Amino acid sequence: MAKSxxxxxxxxxxxxxxxxLIDLLGTPDPVPSGTLFIFNRxxxxxxxxxxxxxxxxxxxxxxxxxxxxxxxxxxxxxxxxSGEDEAWGEIDRLKVLDPELLEKYRMxxxxxxxxxxxxxxxxxxxxxxxxxxxxxxxxxAFAGQTIQSWLENEYAVGGTPGIAGE
Length: 166
Description:
The chain is mainly alpha-helical. It has helices at residues 2-25, 60-67, 81-95, 99-105, 110-118, 134-141, 147-158. Helix 3 runs antiparallel to helix 5 (110-118).
């Protein structure tokens, strides 16, 4: 019986300490879980992952990893310099739910939006006015696409092997 009471006493003490710790430190901020949050800009000087090598098949995780480095599925450098900065700025604004910007991307899957911006499939919305609507039409053309569906289509059209050499 004494061990059971000791265990209960320890559990109560731990619970009291946890409450005090939360009072002192506050509750942690929740970790964002939206699909745009899979895109995180690498640090300065990080090597461009996948640069110069074509993906073997339509692998979303591989494509996202490359997109974080602005490298396309074919191994090309899709963005660099100010174009890369603009794409990351657009993604950051979308992550904080900028209402004006959200309206322009409303028809796109959020993960596809980040992928398309970083790989140059679409341009940032600030150029909509000078492109006579071409940017907006380009975004609309990708409505309903996901990274997976887009990759599968590209591999089917390009005649390259799919997953497991299909």
